[in-house]
Amino acid sequence: MYVAKWKVLFLAIGLLTTVLVGGPSAWGEVSAPPAPVPAATPTVQERLDVLEKKVEVPSLWKALGFKASGFLDVAYTHNFNNPNTNLNQLHIFDTDANSFSTHMVQLMLERPADGEGTGTDRLGFRARLNFGLDARVTRARTNFAPGTSNNELDFQEVYGEYIVPVGNGLKVQAGKINTLIGYEVINSFENANFSRSFMFGLGQAFTTTGIRLTYTFNPIVTASVGLVNGWDNVDDNNKGKTFEWLVALTPHEKVGVSFYGSYGAEQSNCQGGGGGCTPFTTGSDPRAKRTVVGSIITLKPTDKDTIILEPYYANEGNASTVSQARNARWNGIAGYLIHDFDEKWSARVRGEIFEDAGGARTCTGGISFAGGANTCASGSSAVGVTTAGTGGIPQTLWENTYTLQYKPFPSLITRAEFRYDHSNKNVFLYGSRPANNQETLSFQVIYLF
User: Fold this and answer.
1) Cα gap 264→226, rounded to integer Å
2) Distance between CA atoms of residues 442 and 416, nearest Å
3) Residue 192 contacts residue 403 (beta carbons within 8 Å)
4) Average per-residue pLDDT in the chain?
5) Is 366 in contact with 349 (CB distance < 8 Å)?
6) Which residue, 112, 272, 399, 443, is most buried by CB atoms nearer than 10 A?
7) Quick check: is 360 in a domain?
8) pLDDT digits over 61-90, tens only?
């Protein structure tokens, strides 16, 4: 009897042990959870991808807010007059006739000032470095290398800026900056057409060097004022300074009106009359003042159409090449019509009248020493010119320009342009013969990066 009881006890202990260790029991099969399958060893590339996602440290370049960009501008221009000088008379940048040309390679490094930031965020700069035929023109005109013919490297803009935390933010810029005057600019792709107007190329400044203040009062009114060395003067050519201004109004999203101008002494010191210079004669009177006023009126009657009008007037003391000690006047009006068929195709038309009443701006040569810009035909029929490229000619010019633009990609711009120039004087060349008109056909390709 005692033996039977011990057997029952041992049997109970065995059942309990079996349940606790997971063995078979009367309650059914109880199994341990399966061991996890080991994952495959990651490759080196997979490990790098994981690290890149986990560690997103901004580069120093981005942290400092630097931006780099640029463009390449090449073109071919054919002159139907086939001038024997191979020059397009009175053109400024597109001066080479019947020739392929690398007009500009530009690199721009900038750090835009941020008025919404604090401390160094409000500090910025811009540097545009140009190379090519267009740089040859701007370098000569802005006296980086006066008299030099073949230097094709030029800093178009070099300036620093700071936004003073006053009101909406007062922007202060100092250095060499694109001018406030005029609708057109040096960079071709920023204009409506490939070639530049007479008014910009012959009658307006390219850049100014000095200090400029800009303030946006509200979404409608922005104003800029500056004190500079003068038109295109990196180094001042006299003791005077020029005052410039711009007031931009945007009363409606489809209407914009800007008023601009400058006033100051622009003629060079004669330096005692050396080198054949007579003080206070035409072109060497630092007391004479140049006054310029103009306006840019922009209208958008539809989403696809833009109309721009620019009336312009300038007057300078003791600058006439027609009458000694007389003022020179030049003035004009240009109109632009831009129609965008879609995001890729666009048609542009420019019409312009430019009057150089005092002969101070046209046929004077010297703006592009190697490119032959602003030269005219010689001979008695040109009136007032005995040698090509010397001496101004009072005249009235007008031109019509028609441009078809195709932009297959945001970074690629192609243009075809036909231009007709006319003068009331025989200042153009037809072969070797002076003529009163000139026709050119240009093809342009611009790559933005």
Assistant:
1) 12
2) 6
3) yes
4) 84
5) no
6) 399
7) yes
8) 777 789 999 999 999 999 999 999 888 999
Decide: 243 and 210 in contact? Cβ < 8 Å.
no
Question: What is the count of structural domains for the chain?
Answer: 1
**What whole-number distance in Å separates Cα of residue 77 and Cα of residue 234?**
31
Looking at this protein, which amino acid is placed at residue 293?
A: V
Residue 198, token pair as written in the block: 């007479």
pLDDT digits (tens, 9 = 90+) for 285-344: 889 999 999 999 999 999 999 999 999 999 999 998 887 778 999 999 999 999 999 999
What range does the domain containing 442 cover?
A: 72-448
Q: Is 175 exposed, middle or buried (0-12, 13-18, 19+ CB in 10 A)?
A: buried
The CATH code of the domain that includes 385 is: 2.40.160.10
Question: What single-letter amino acid sits at 341?
Answer: F
For 155, half-sphere exposure in the C-beta direction (CA atoms, 13 angstrom radius) is 13
59 within a domain of the structure (yes/no) = no
Residue labelled with tokens 């005249």: 395
Domain-embedded: residue 151: yes
At 5 the pLDDT is 45
> From CA 386, how far away is CA 379, in angstroms rounded?
6
Cα atoms found within 13 Å of the Cα of residue 296, Cβ hemisphere only: 19
Measured from the Cβ of residue 81, the count of other Cβ atoms closer than 10 Å reads: 19
Residue 20 placed within a domain: no
The pair of three-digit structure tokens given for residue 390, joined into one six-digit string? 């010397």
Other Cβ atoms within 10 Å of 305 Cβ, number: 12
d(CA 316, CA 360): 9
Q: Which amino acid is at 217?
A: F
Question: Which residues pair with residue 332 across a beta bridge?
Answer: 312, 354
Partners of 398 in the β-ladder: 353, 422
- Cα separation, 338 vs 14, in Å, equals 99
Instruction: Say if strands 412-423 and 437-448 run parallel, antiparallel, or are unpaired.
Output: antiparallel
**Could you please report the per-residue DSSP string of 131-168?**
ESHHHHHHHHHTTSSTT-SS--EEEEEEEEEEEE-STT
Any idea what DSSP says for residue 119? G
How far is the CA of 239 from the CAs of 236, 294, 328, in angstroms?
A: 7, 26, 21
Q: How many residues does the chain have?
A: 449
Taking alpha carbons only, the member of 107, 111, 124, 108 closest to residue 62 is 111
Q: What angle do CA 355, 358, 363 make, to 5 degrees?
A: 75
